[in-house]
């Protein structure tokens, strides 16, 4: 079975806007997952809506603006 998890966060430090959180929802096969530029990621979901809610929840937890 193929690994459906996003790649591990790389050890690089962002210098452009290190406190900025950019989330996106990606799809791999029948699963989607949310991940953020800070290295956070949510587990794979079959529901895109649940992945979007995971992303929005992360932004709320970090105090970032929800677009």
From TrEMBL:
Chain intervals for the UniProt region annotation (Disordered): 1-26, 43-67
Superkingdom, natural source: Bacteria
Biased composition (Basic and acidic residues): 14-26
Record-given protein name: Uncharacterized protein
Taxonomic lineage from the root: Bacteria, Bacillati, Actinomycetota, Actinomycetes, Kitasatosporales
């Amino acid at each position: 079975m193929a690994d459906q998890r996003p790649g591990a966060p790389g050890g690089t430090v962002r210098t452009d806007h290190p406190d900025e959180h950019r989330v996106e929802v990606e799809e791999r096969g029948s699963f989607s997952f949310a991940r953020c530029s800070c290295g956070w990621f949510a587990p794979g979901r079959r529901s895109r809506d649940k992945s979007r809610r995971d992303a929005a929840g992360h932004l709320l937890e970090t105090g970032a603006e929800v677009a």
